[in-house]
Specification:
single chain; alpha+beta; 2 domains; two-stranded antiparallel sheet; Phage_capsid_2
């Protein structure tokens, strides 16, 4: 019996086991060279009864940040001259290369 199970290439395939994991809802980790990140707020797909998710390469996204006001320590005269620490910084991410993004429609 053990020889039959170990001899079955479907059962011993890492991709099959990862696919089984995805079917059972374990959608975290690496599968077929892709890091899968769980996300539940999926939009409707192109056809009725389907959901849409996306897959993108690491170079498809551009990250940026900007220092709007410098970080400093100031005195607040309106609050009994207490010290206040603060600054404003902006962060963002945007799709930089449309060719490296794929939409995947699937049935739920």
């Amino acid at each position: 019996m053990l020889e039959l199970i170990l001899g079955d290439t479907t059962l011993t395939s890492a991709d099959f086991m990862a696919g089984k994991m995805l079917q059972e809802g374990g959608v975290g980790g690496k599968w077929m060279g892709v890091n899968w990140i769980p996300y539940e707020k999926l939009k409707a797909g192109a056809t009725a009864g389907t959901k849409r998710t996306v897959m993108y390469s690491g170079t498809a996204v551009h990250f940026g940040d900007a220092d709007i006001t410098a970080f400093d320590i100031s005195t607040r005269p309106d609050k009994k001259n207490i010290k206040q620490v603060g600054g404003v910084h902006s962060f963002g991410a945007a799709r930089a290369n449309e060719v490296k993004v794929v939409a995947i429609d699937f049935t739920a």
